[in-house]
Amino acid sequence: MISRKVILTGSFGVGKTSLFRRFITNTFSEKYITTIGVKVDKKTVEVKGQEVSILLWDIAGEIKQDKVPKSYFLGASAIIYVFDLTRPSTYKNISTDMKILNDILPDSILKIVANKADMVNASAIDTISSELEESIDVITSAKTGENVDELFLGLAADFLN
After folding, report:
1. Given 59, 83, 105, 114, which is the most exposed site by the fewest CB atoms within 10 A?
2. Is a pLDDT exceeding 70 seen at residue 65?
3. What is the domain partition of the chain in residue ranges?
4. Neighbour tally for 150: CB within 10 Å
């Protein structure tokens, strides 16, 4: 079995904790509870006949990624950068945040995740995608579970390559 550390980061209120919960326990809550510091849990998945243990770190939301303690990122194999499709302020600085994250962990896998797909229509998603300088890797809804397992199973598969 291989084990990899994965960081969930992005602005406050984008659904990082909801994605965390949906993946780890397959639950969702409408209650918004601010994450203080970091929450850590793990889940083992099977991909391509191999077990992959994902140690998932849910980091408190920050508007600027350079405000997150760099020690949180130590040893991470991947970063999942989450933004909220309903709040432009959460994705207007994606390019700057990507540069900061790439500087911190230049050899890690970096996934850009657009969350809250259940709250917008396909045309809005297309418009947002066309306005971004960065490409969205996965469009999710923590509420409905849309593409949540695909996100993490895809990441686990990437670890095997």
Report:
1. 105
2. no
3. 2-160
4. 12
